[in-house]
Amino acid sequence: MDDIKGRHILFFCPRFFKYENEITKQLEKMGANVEWFDQRSVQGTIGRSILKIHPRLLAIQSQVYYSKIINNTNKLDYLFVIEGQMIPINIMKKIKKNNPDIKTILYLWDSVSNIKGIKNKFRYFDTIYSYDQLDCKKYKKFIFRPLFYIDEYTNDDKHISHKKYDISSIGTVHSDRYAIIKKIRKYAIENNKKMFEFNYLQKKWVFYFKKILNYEYRSANVNEFSFIKMDSKDIARVSEETVAILDAQHPKNVGLTMRTFEMTAAQKKIITTNSYIVNYNFYNENNIFYFNREEKHIRIPDSFFKTEFIPIDQKVLDEYSIQHWIRDIFDENFDENKFYINKDTD
């Protein structure tokens, strides 16, 4: 990787379960001088909703926000951006003009189709990484680099005996996730499996909005949901007490979620709706059960819960650590092929 010791990195990343803090911390451990800012110029549920639907309505606010940052920033060696939806193009131009030797890096932990306006900004980045296998096929400039796990999820206890839960579901209730949770809940009841649920929504009004407009929520109770995020330490604790973790990615995404790598590091079995997981070098059908999200009835073999987790080769697992993720992002000679079993699967 490039030597980032002593280098000045301007880092824009959304607030996301404190991962922005973990990335900053690791960069600083490697000797970099890091200035982190939220890439969103707006906060709150309404502002983020506007961002998803019509980001141009926030253009003036973004200009003021980003201008203030770069006007108070000294000479830069790197611009490191995750997602990048809100950074204005003229700000990108100004950063590059003020820092002729700067290296600009974009990492996408969402699919291009979900990030409005991002394609217009590709030309301003020297390197673009994506966690999405299909986007990396579609855009020649893209380099495939999956997400990571942080150290607190590493766990040597793979034994399934004395676990409190057979299945745990922890996450933001997006897209069709609640419908999937209901299917898994029904399976758990019918098959005498103990299930833990933590269903996060941003605000209580979001629940009532969904209840009116979305059929799947008609019978839902507000008490099924939390409007405060679950701390990562609590997630790790519940995971330790669970045999298998539910992972339901957004239906428009094929990239593996952060939860996938965290639970793999924690040596937990995974129940997932993402068929692309079979392409990765850590896939093992003993540890991972895939089901089609369109299925009306979920059928998971009872043996899946009774057999032990088969450990992943440590060298393979280490490649998904946050330390290796950062090294790869700042490595001009990075080889994306090391993560694949089958690169050509569509």
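^ that was protein a. below is b, sequence first then the tokens
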Amino acid sequence: MSAQQLSADRPGRATHGGSGTGTAHGKTILLGEHAVVYGSPAIAVPLPRLAARAHVDLDAPAATLTTSLWTGPLGDAPARLAPTLTALRTTLAALRPRDAAALEATAALHVTSDVPHERGLGSSAAVAAAVVRSVAAALRHPLDPDELHELVQASERVAHGSPSGLDARSVVADGPLWFHHGEARLLPVGVDGVLVVADTGVAGDTRSAVAGVRARRDADPAAARALDRLGDLVTAGRDGLAAGDLDAVGSVMDEAHGLLADLTVSSPELDGLTAAARAAGALGAKLTGGGRGGCAVALCADPTTAADVAAAVTAAGATGVWTSPLTPTTADQPISPTGSTPTA
């Protein structure tokens, strides 16, 4: 269903809009990257300490956009901000189809984000979700999870072409997600733990990595077997999380990193960070996201070990390090549609 179809039967309202604030957060893929492209499941974990925030005033004197990348008239925004503009415009069109153009003409949008760009942590989806939520809040429109997802996906298509939907779901999730064939549900976690995410300082290249893996899969049966095994490891990781067996999850992560390296999507920087994390006491470590740059993620049993791992990966060259608690949860909880606040 398109974003426009979501609101096809809604009557138009007065052009006047208020102001609203929306938030979302980053994510890390714990298991399943690349294999998810071929129908395998994936597990993603939200990173609530990496937040994206948007505030929109729909009664501003002029249409403006303010971000850390660029500030100026909305209509003059550079192409790299097209996904952000799409989130604004698509949401206005979906929620106020008759008044969308007039509302955009008086929209002042301000976006900030702690999620680093091009690191596989869901930056574009987090910003899009924050913008969608801010507009919905300004229009006093409660969003259900599927409606929010569809609107974020419209932005993600501009950013990535054919997104799986994993990022759009995980940047608004309250806990670890099982994602398969476009459907997402919260996973049970049976024990406390801590994730450490380390930035190589090198921008990832997801498009190149995905294309490279596809070429290897088409040419080499061993690559196809590696992708199948990566899919099996996602199921093993899910079972380990549910049972509270972090040692098993860590072992699965280590094996997954080796397979991803065989598929040529690791890098010397990623290999160095994962090795440093393991040496400092991590139960497992692997690249996260598309690879060939970006970030690594390590699983630790407790905050003390996580601090040791954070120090070790920093010493090994990480340009940014973030920790995130992994807390016990139950399965089959709805994905929260909250995160937006009307402010006027």
